[in-house]
Design brief:
With 485 residues, this protein is mainly α. The protein has 2 domains: 34 residues, no CATH class; 439 residues, Amino acid/polyamine transporter I, CATH 1.20.1740. It contains 14 helices and 4 strands. The strands form 2 sheets. The protein has a two-stranded antiparallel sheet. It has a two-stranded antiparallel ribbon with strand order 3-4. Helix 1 crosses helix 6 and helix 4 packs across helix 5. The longest helix is centred in the N-terminal third of the chain and has 41 residues. It is globular, with a radius of gyration of 23 Å. This is Amino acid permease 3-like. Pfam families: Aa_trans. It comes from Dorcoceras hygrometricum. It is found in: Membrane.
Length: 485
Amino acid sequence: MVRDNRDSNAIDLSINVPPDQGGSTYLDDDGRLKRTGTVWTASAHIITAVIGSGVLSLAWATAQLGWLAGPVMLLFFSIVTYFNSLLLATSYRAGDQDVGKRNHTYMEAVRAHLGGFQVKACGTVQYLNIFGAAVGYTIASALSMTAITRSYCFNTKGKDSPCIISNSPFMIAFGVLQVILSQIPDFDQIWWLSIVAAVMSFTYSSIGLILGIAKLSENGKIKGSLTGVHVGTGPGEVTQATKIWRSFQALGAIAFAYSFSLVLVEIQDTIKSPPSEYKTMRKATSISIAVTTVFYLSCACFGYAAFGDEAPGNLLAGFGYFNPSWLIDIANAAIIIHLLGAYQVFCQPLFAFFQRTATAWFPGSEFVTKEIPIRIPIQGYEPYKLNLFRLVWRTFFVVVTTVIALALPFFTDIVGILGALGFWPLTVYFPVEMYIVQKRIPKWSTKWIGFQILSVTCLIVSITAAAGSIAGVAAHLKVYKPFKS
């Protein structure tokens, strides 16, 4: 039996090690199971987390900001995310990047470098953001399922058919699938799901891009303006107040599209070494952010050029349900498959935290710690180890997120709030502060002042984005009846 005793929340990592092979074949430098991640699996995890359903709202966000501010803000968030991701990656090991003590989670990294109240603050923000992402993904997947069903309805019953379809059954179906997938024990075992999800994200992003280019070619001109949606009283125009709130909300949508910092440390913890995890993570981050930035700029700009001020909150919705309906159906199916994986990539850290906590509080409870082997009728596969606490806790989590999604299915607004709440603390503040402590950067030095300016600037952006998204939710609640989407 091997136990990690370095902190009070450690899990009992019991494994059977053949006496003739020794523990080194199966165990890592700190007694945990060996990691197998590479730059490619890490890139797949990141792309799965980053290129999510948020890409579909970027054309709408660009329409609110215009040709001048839209691309600039996309590049701004890309650069800030990349820079701060490198800072956060240095905090994975305390001290030396090759042999320092490993921090397996974001919270452990904050505890090792900052400690005190900031650990609880980090955990609260991180896990609330993960919870919110699960709600957002449930809503987005249901919208895609509904779109496919309506497309089939129109093509079989005719264009004039109302084809009124509720999102609710699809949210429930997505929840049922997540209950099953959530029983995968840990992050390192979902690498295959991330690769599938990453492929799907490229699929629907590419289709959205191709359709945008085709629409632009059909129009024969580039739509949009330097300042975005026009203020006025004419068709498609908005009031000055609405323009401001939507511009703020657009910032939140862009921030959400780039959010993966909340699971960066957990992804880094899947990477094998040598070389040092930081070197591999730096390559994976560079590859992933470069790829996603090109995709985001392309989808946002071509989508805005094709639709102008009328760019929809979901880019695929702008092409309707006809010609070519089969291609749009493929894109929506890819979104659903991608979100099945993205849900797990985001939620695994939260699942693991509660399981660690329960194990630390009730070490003698068989309900919490006992694993029941279940034989899988496939040759070469080890028995699946069923844990009752994992089954109950993760099922409960999925049920709660599904119920909230059923009650508040405002995808664009939810996306904006999530992006705003998680961007500054998780992507900027904690990585900056941990780097300052780790590198012993003197207070009031030029580098320290530069970091603080970056942090304050991003805080202002997060506050304005949150304000815009909350205003959007408030507007929807005035006319919306819960559970009747």
